[in-house]
Design brief:
Radius of gyration: 18 Å
Oligomer: single chain
Strand content: 5-15%
Number of strands: 9
Length: 332
C-alpha cells in the first residue's frame, strides 16, 4: 500500500512550521498543505525549500482574511446567519474563532488574544467553519467564490514558484459541492489531486451525523463524484480524522493500516497537524491575518502528534508491512 502522510496548516504559526518540517525530516510526513493567507506563510515556504518538502494548497475559505477583494462570505445575508460570535466583518465585530477550526475531540475553543486588534476590527474576513454546516453555502456567489479560489492558487504559485497540483481544504471545505465545482473550474488541468476525508471501514465509531465531522462525511460521496468526473485523484482510503492524539499510539496506526491492506486498499492518506508548541508564539506572525490564534494550534495534542509521527516504532511497523511512504506528486 502507498501512504501519503500530509501535515496540515503549514504557515499558521512558527511552531507549526518548525513541527511540520521536523516531522518531515525526522518522521513519516511526506508533504504539507500550505495556508497562503497565513502570516507565517513566507517562513513556511522558506523552510520547505530548505528541505525539499512537497507542498499543496490548503484552500482556506473559513478563517482569517480573504486574498481576493471580493468574498461570498461577508455579505449582510451571511452575517445575519452567522451572528453568534463567528465573524469579524464590517457589520459585526464578534469573533470568528469559536467555530473556525476543526476539533475532533469536541473541546471548547478559546482565543489566545482576548481582543482583536483595532486595525482588524473592521476587516472583512471569513466566518468560520460553521459555514460548512449551513445551507447558506448554497447561496454563495459563484463569481466571488471562484475569484477567491483563483487568488489563493495564484498566490501559492507566486510564493512557491510552482503551480498547486494538489489542493485540499481547511476545515475540509473542499467537499462542499459548489467549492468542489469551483476548484475544478478554476484550477483546470493543473489540478491533479485532492483530499477525500471519508470514514473508512476500519473506523470503530463514526461521528454523529449532526456533528461537524458527521456533516463532512455526508458530503464526501457527491464531492468524490465531482472530482472523479474531472479526473482529479484522491486516495482510496483516509485515516486521521477521528484519531485522538492523547490515546493514539504507533500500534493504533499500524493496526489500521494493516486492516486496510487486508481489504486490498491500494492508497491511503493520513492527515496530521504536528506543531512544536514550545516555540515562543509571536502573534504578529501567527494566524491568518487577524492577530488571533486559536486553541487548536497550540494545544498539547499538536505536540503529541509531532512525537507520534517521529516515533521510530511507527516507521518500523509501516516498513514491516511494506508500506511505501509517498507524496501526492508520486501518485499523479
Amino acid at each position: 500500500m502507498k501512504l501519503v502522510v500530509c501535515a496540515d496548516d503549514f504557515g499558521y504559526c512558527l511552531g507549526t512550521n518548525v513541527g511540520v518540517v521536523e516531522a518531515f525530516e525526522d518522521g513519516i510526513v511526506t508533504q504539507a498543505s500550505l495556508l497562503v493567507n497565513s502570516l507565517s506563510c513566507d517562513d513556511a515556504v522558506k523552510r520547505a525549500q530548505g528541505c525539499d518538502l512537497p507542498l499543496g494548497l490548503h484552500l482556506n475559505l473559513s478563517e482569517g482574511i480573504p486574498i481576493s477583494s471580493l468574498s461570498p462570505f461577508t455579505s449582510n445575508k451571511i452575517v445575519h446567519y452567522f451572528n453568534d460570535s463567528v465573524g469579524i466583518t464590517e457589520n459585526n465585530n464578534s469573533y470568528y474563532n469559536e467555530h473556525s477550526r476543526e476539533d475532533t475531540n469536541s473541546k471548547p475553543q478559546k482565543t489566545i488574544n482576548s481582543t482583536p486588534s483595532t486595525s482588524t476590527a473592521t476587516t472583512l474576513c471569513f466566518l468560520g467553519k460553521a459555514i460548512v454546516h449551513s445551507d447558506t453555502r448554497l447561496g454563495w456567489d459563484e463569481m466571488s467564490l471562484r475569484q477567491e479560489i483563483r487568488a489563493q492558487a495564484n498566490l501559492f504559485e507566486r510564493k512557491t514558484g510552482y503551480k498547486c497540483s494538489h489542493v485540499d481544504g481547511h476545515n475540509h471545505i473542499n467537499v462542499v459541492e459548489n467549492v468542489a465545482k469551483g476548484m475544478v473550474a478554476e484550477l483546470g488541468d493543473d489540478f491533479k489531486s485532492t483530499r477525500m476525508p471519508m470514514f473508512s471501514s476500519i473506523e470503530v465509531s463514526p461521528p454523529e451525523e449532526t456533528s461537524f465531522l458527521g456533516k463532512i462525511g455526508s458530503l464526501t460521496e457527491q464531492a468524490s463524484c465531482i472530482y472523479k468526473a474531472a479526473s482529479v485523484f484522491h486516495t482510496h482510503s483516509f485515516i486521521g480524522i477521528s484519531y485522538n492524539p492523547s490515546t493514539t499510539t504507533p500500534q493504533t496506526i499500524i493496526s489500521d493500516v494493516q486492516n486496510l491492506i487486508r481489504q486490498d486498499v491500494k492508497t491511503c492518506e493520513f492527515m496530521s497537524h504536528p506543531s512544536d508548541i514550545g516555540i515562543d508564539r509571536d502573534e504578529s506572525v501567527s494566524g491568518c491575518g487577524l492577530g488571533i490564534v486559536d486553541a487548536f494550534a497550540c494545544d498539547e495534542d499538536r505536540a503529541m502528534e509531532l512525537s507520534l509521527l517521529k516515533d521510530p516504532a511507527l516507521r518500523q511497523g509501516l516498513e514491516e508491512l511494506d508500506v511505501e511512504l509517498v507524496s501526492f506528486n508520486d501518485l499523479t
